[in-house]
Each structure stands twice: as C-alpha cells, then as structure tokens.
C-alpha cells in the first residue's frame, strides 16, 4: 500500500510540520480544518508545500524520521526543489 511523507507550512520559511500517511488528501484536510487537535492547529500550519510517495508505510516512516532530523535549511531546500514558490499543493491533490 503506498504512503506519503509530507511537509506543511504556516508561511514560507516559518513553522513546518512533517508527517506520514496512507491517505494524503484526507490527512491534509484534517490539518487544514483542525479536525485533530495538536501542533498544526496550535501553530496554524495548514499549507501543503511538499510531499513524496513511497511504496509502503515502513519506507515512508523511515523517510519521515530522516527528514525530521534535518536542519531547517535542508527542509527549505527540499521544499524548493519541488515547489520553489511555496504554493499550497492541496488543491492539486483533488483534481
């Protein structure tokens, strides 16, 4: 079953959240509308700025852990390779 690692941002170069899921559109929707209390609702981290698909959940979890250990600038660089304008990619998921 495929899984995704994703990064949400409050604004470009500000607060980031890295997560993993098997249903990316549903999970981002939950973050956007504060359906699950926690970090993203507290700090208003709602824009999907980066994501990466993996073959299975274990692989995605390993990648998530790797990214969470990275320096902020490395995360910014990763985002900008896929999304140099820091657009909210959520709408693209639902096309």
Short description:
The protein is an alpha+beta fold and 95 residues long.
Layout of SSEs?
Layout: E1 3-9, E2 16-21, H1 24-32, H2 39-42, E3 47-54, H3 57-69, H4 72-82, H5 90-93
Antiparallel strand pairs: 1-2, 1-3
Can you describe this structure?
This protein is an alpha+beta fold and 95 residues long. The chain has one domain: GIY-YIG endonuclease, CATH 3.40.1440. The chain has helices spanning 24-32, 39-42, 57-69, 72-82, 90-93; strands spanning 3-9, 16-21, 47-54. Strands 2-1-3 form a three-stranded antiparallel sheet, sandwiched between helices. The radius of gyration is 12 Å and the shape is globular. It starts with a strand and ends with a helix.
CATH topology: GIY-YIG endonuclease
Distance between the termini: 21 Å
Major sheet strand order = 2-1-3
Radius of gyration: 12 Å
Quote the average pLDDT.
Answer: 96
Task: Enumerate how many helices there are, as a single number.
Answer: 5
What quaternary form is this?
single chain
pLDDT < 50 runs, ≥5 residues: none
Assign the CATH architecture: 3-Layer(aba) Sandwich
* SSE sequence, one letter per element: EEHHEHHH
How many discrete structural domains?
A: 1
Q: Tell me about the biggest sheet? A: 3 strands, antiparallel
Shape: globular
| Text of the CATH class | Alpha Beta
Which structural traits does this protein have?
alpha+beta, GIY-YIG endonuclease, three-stranded antiparallel sheet, 5 helices, 3 strands
